[in-house]
Design brief:
Pathway: Amino-acid biosynthesis; L-histidine biosynthesis; L-histidine from 5-phospho-alpha-D-ribose 1-diphosphate: step 7/9. InterPro entries: Aminotransferase_I/II_large, HisP_aminotrans, HistidinolP_aminotransfase, PyrdxlP-dep_Trfase, PyrdxlP-dep_Trfase_major, PyrdxlP-dep_Trfase_small. Belongs to the class-II pyridoxal-phosphate-dependent aminotransferase family. Histidinol-phosphate aminotransferase subfamily. By secondary structure, this protein is an alpha/beta fold. It is 37% helix and 15% strand. Strands 2-8-7-6-5-3-4 form a seven-stranded mixed beta sheet, with helices on both faces. The protein has a four-stranded antiparallel beta sheet with strand order 9-10-13-12. Helix 7 links the parallel strand 6 and strand 7. The chain starts with 31 loop residues before the first strand and ends in a 5-residue tail after the last helix.
């Protein structure tokens, strides 16, 4: 057998479809970006001030365990900081969980329209992803449990889910967990928890505190710090120990640690984000529910709009782009070509999007 003439990636790596981020406007354009679920109110002023202060000390290494950030998170969320791991965005932590708990011959289970990073990190660890059909764009607990086999090692659950915005109640998540073997890790990805207004929702800390096979993952990206790349995870001691053994020793930079700590404690800013989002999410849902559009009820900071065909969705995307509003096409990444995902933005942006789509002749 002839040796290759250049380094070769591990088997399966080149079979992985790369992550496709939301589009932005062309360089120099004034297009409004509503494709990445970013904060419409920017970042907490306290977080910005903390980042500026930390930027005057760029010559020093950050504290390796993100102690200041973990202590702030523990204080605000009532969690022992020793059970928190911070990362370079929640994607960093999800990758580490896959690397730690999945390997060749293993399987991970997810709902079909779950976060598109899950298949990437599962396959990168050498495992197989099992996608389970949903019930009207909502995770189906019975179907997820029915997909579990002796090879299953991880269940990925985004709650609320991206890109659909749907969620499982705390009782449903508890039922999902109760049906899993104790050696299966349930990963509850609560990236959009700050925007949930449903009374029957739980971020997952109750399950984490009571069981040895549940972790909860969160992010600061939807709270105005997407550029800083800050994620955090709460888990049982044995999971925290395993992740800390392989994570990068300085995986959260110093300005991010300081900004994250300040943002966590700025509960007034977080509450204002939630209030703004709840109002305009409901308003946009009502405004777009008609003219041959269906809006899936959302608990996140976006809505998913279904059109009667992929062609109509593509025409709606182009019409919005021509008007200066970039939304997310989710056919390529998620297999829902007849849908668009629209981030909740400013009042002006929401009214403009509604006007543009409301005036389209979607019957053609």
């Amino acid at each position: 057998m002839t040796a290759p003439n250049r380094p070769q990636p591990q088997p399966g790596i080149l079979d992985i479809a790369p992550y496709l981020p939301g589009k932005s406007g062309k360089p120099g354009s004034k297009a409004i970006k509503l494709s990445a679920n970013e904060s419409p109110l920017g970042a907490s002023p306290k977080a910005l001030a903390a980042m500026v202060e930390a930027a005057s000390h760029l010559e020093i290494y950050p504290e390796g365990s993100s102690r200041v950030l973990r202590e702030a998170l523990g204080e605000v969320h009532g969690v022992d900081p020793a059970r928190i791991v911070c990362g370079n965005g929640s994607d960093d932590l999800l990758h580490l969980l896959a690397q730690t708990y999945l390997g060749e011959g293993d399987e991970a289970v997810m709902n079909r329209y779950g976060f598109s990073v899950y298949p990437i990190i599962t396959k990168a660890a050498g495992a197989s992803i099992v996608m389970v059909d949903e019930d009207d764009y909502r995770a189906d607990v019975d179907a997820l449990l029915g997909a579990v086999t002796p090879r299953t090692k991880v269940v990925w659950l985004a709650n609320p889910n991206n890109p659909t915005g749907t969620y499982l109640t705390s009782a449903e998540v508890a039922r999902l967990h109760a049906g899993l073997r104790p050696d299966i890790l349930l990963v509850i990805d609560s990236a959009y928890a700050e925007y949930v207004t449903a009374a029957d929702y739980s971020v997952g800390l109750d399950l984490v505190g009571a069981h040895d096979n549940v972790v909860m993952v969160r992010t600061f990206s939807k709270m105005g710090l997407a550029a800083a790349r800050i994620g955090w995870m709460v888990g049982p001691d044995h999971v925290v120990d395993a992740i800390n053994r392989i994570r990068g020793p300085f995986n959260v930079n110093l300005p991010a640690q300081m900004a994250g700590a300040a943002a966590a404690r700025d509960v007034a800013f977080t509450a204002e984000l939630r209030r703004h989002n709840a109002h305009w999410r409901e308003w946009l849902t009502t405004a777009l529910s008609g003219n041959r559009m269906r809006v899936i009820p959302s608990q996140a900071n976006f809505v998913m709009v279904l059109f009667d065909s992929p062609e109509t969705a593509a025409r709606a995307f182009e019409t919005l782009a021509d008007a200066g509003y970039i939304v997310r096409e989710i056919g390529p990444s998620y297999g829902i070509p007849q849908a668009l995902r629209i981030s909740i933005g400013s009042e002006a942006a929401m009214r403009a999007v509604a006007d543009v789509l409301g005036s389209m002749d979607l019957g053609k």
